[in-house]
Design goal:
60s Ribosomal Protein L30, Chain: A, Porin, alpha+beta, 3 domains, 22% helix, four-stranded mixed β-sheet, single chain, 6 helices, eight-stranded antiparallel beta barrel
Length: 458
Amino acid sequence: MNYSTIKKTAVAATLVAALGFADTAQAQQVFGGRSQYRTWSIGVQGGITTPNNVLGGTNAFGQKVGYFQNKVGEYYGLTVRKQFSHLFGLEVEANRGKIKTYNHDLSGPAIENSRGARSVETKVNWAASLNGVFQLGTIDFLRRENAVNFYAKVGLGAMAYNPVQYSNNDFSGTVVYDNSGKWGEGIIGDRDKNDEGRDNKLTAFVPVGVGAKFKLSEVVALNLGYTMNFADDQIYGPARQSSYKGKFSQVMAGLEFTLGSKDKQNLTFANPVATMYDELKDPSLRNEVEALKQRVSTLEGTVNTLSADADGDGVSDKFDKCPDTPAGTPVDGSGCPIKFPEPQVLDNNANGYYAPIQFEFDSSVLKTSSYSTLDKLAKEVRDNNSTVTLDGYASEEGSEAYNMTLSKDRANSVKQYLVNAGVSASSITANGYGEANPVASNATEEGRIQNRRVEIKK
């Protein structure tokens, strides 16, 4: 498998995982969603590097495998991870260290390239990658949380490096190749011509690894891992195989610290299948569910009792002091009928006094009981060719702006009735005054009823 194929596969796998974790996380809603878990963690790690990996292949300096051999180098770094479900997480990883290799067989090719290198030490100033981490399996399957978890990861990253080649095979002697401070000047293997004077060369790489995590406590886990890194450049410097792609492996051990409240489970070690098993089989949980069902049943009975209303007046039977109120009768808070003042017509010499026209709460619709009064008013205005002023009012429920509109609607409702009864519209003036000029206290329902009115002035 060449580097290009590996990189494309890694990118595709990471994107598919990033787009697909939402569906996986959705299934977690069965147990309350991610909010019930701790999902963030940071880790520190250290280990060694080797200049090859388990996939094998020819190394950079010899036409045959075996001339240049492994030599371990130190490697260390840190990680920050967000777990999206018990199956998948995203991780940012940063490392630095060294990669070493040397020619232990002096009977082999004495000159591996034009400079006669026998050992190479590649210094990795930094390497950073974004990895998709896939949880592969667990131990203690029938427990809510597991003590051991296996994982695989794949990602894409960049690293800054500088190879140094020596004439001896023990990383000593004459330095035959060191391009530090010269990257960008067209040296072999450097394709960047616009960045002269760099101490390190930049290249992309793909990390592919496996590992296992061991839960030491609710906060700390031991992380052991092996990662193969496929670079997009000649990370060991110039060699006979001028087109080789560098690769190296790292074996790491570290500690991972889970962030968040200890009262929540660590999603890395959570097992939803085991959780479901517990919920189905645990007698204490089953008893708790039955107790909750009983409480719900009791509450439903209480609600049904409070909502019973035999006479349909809107007041529960439990609080209804007048339980047999005829349908449609306006009632007060105790369920008893409200007595409305009857419209009166009083003659005062030539000018008749008309009692205010009353309205229901939040309504501008005329009551049928007002028709006889308005019919008399219409006849008087027509016969005398006189004028009339209608002043609309409202009680204090609702906002002032709303009540102002409502009072105008009430006055116009009376006006329309008079016009329909043959009174000229020009003889009628309709005004709205909202909550102004109350004729009774708005603190009681009886008072508010009187304030919902249109006053007639001749």
